Amino acid sequence: EQYRESAGFLRERLGDFAPKIAMVLGSGLGDYADRMEQAQVISYEEIPGFPISTVKEHKAKLILGTLFDVPVAIMQGRYHYYEGYTQQQITLPIRVLRELGAEILCLTNASGGINLSFEPGDLMMIDDHINFSGVSPLIGENVEEQGLRFPDMSMAYDKTLKQCLLRAAEKSGVDLKR
Questions:
Q1: Helix ranges, the chain (H)
Q2: Among 71, 132, 145, 156, fewest CB within 10 Å belongs to which?
């Protein structure tokens, strides 16, 4: 019920605005939201049920507007399991953005790695991942309108979107790691 309450609050503030794309900007990319046009900025503190990030670098703001004429919702910062939040609290904003109409989710983050050819600041596209945490955001009551109970994780990262990202990186001269 919490995601519905949060989405209801946002609908009242946004009117008929419905994001097609949701983005979560991690450390180092938060300023990308400055590119938004017709931006409406809402602090996480204002949104019922949204946790408060304790990471200083995260601005804790939801920015809604357009990028290249596409309606987009950008989260400047997010919450982490290591901050003491449950998986359900961490995924609440994603469920809210889906409820508002977002069909595509783009996640970004800063990360370490063990590949010696990678350097700090490299951009990377994730092809797959393994959840070693032992916890899952799927635990609890299933919400049918939010999607499948057990989605096919062999295709967690959309093949078409990955190809678009690779082409854009190549066209822009970006050495995108994988």
A1: 2-14, 87-99, 159-172
A2: 132
